[in-house]
Specification:
With about 140 residues, the protein is mostly helical. The chain has helices at about 10-30, 55-65, 85-90, 120-130, 135-139; strands at about 75-80, 95-100, 115. Helices cover about 35% and strands about 10% of the residues. Helix 3 (about 85-90) links the parallel strand 1 (about 75-80) and strand 2 (about 95-100). The longest helix has 17 residues, at about 10-30. The radius of gyration is 16 Å and the shape is globular.
């Protein structure tokens, strides 16, 4: 989800678009189990105040962690093209995977993995789980 800020509030249309992108991701990676998808990163603060739009990546990740209580952050992978999400995930001990299409800038945050497209996330998941294409061929 895009950040909701006083200068760029997130709309319901933004949330619908993000939900569609997440649905497309799950269809492209049918062998990956997604425990939680959060298309709406808006923080529900005080109405008509700056706090109602105060949405940080750390807030979104805390929301995620609260919904999947008991799962070690090291067992989570945050996949994003956003610096703020990748930094917050890294700082909270999660694996990070940056989606960076060819010819895009590298980014300022060091991540565990970089992929060019969503389809390549499957390879990252397999590597984290200790599954490799070469070992499958040998077996």
């Amino acid at each position: 989800p895009l950040p909701s800020t006083p200068s760029h509030p997130q709309t319901d249309e933004d949330v619908k678009r993000t939900q569609q992108e997440m649905d497309d991701l799950t269809k492209q990676l049918p062998n990956v189990r997604f425990d939680l998808l959060v298309p709406d990163g808006r923080r529900r603060g005080q109405e008509k105040t700056v706090m109602s739009n105060d949405d940080t990546a750390d807030d979104v990740l805390k929301n995620v962690l609260s919904k999947i209580d008991g799962i070690d952050p090291l067992k989570l992978v945050v996949v994003s093209d956003r610096e703020d999400y990748l930094k917050a995930a890294r700082d909270n001990g999660m694996f990070t995977c940056r989606i960076r299409p060819n010819n895009k800038r590298r980014g300022n945050i060091t991540t565990n993995y970089d992929v060019e497209d969503v389809g390549s996330v499957q390879d990252v998941i397999n590597e984290i789980n200790g599954i490799s294409f070469n070992s499958a061929l040998k077996g």
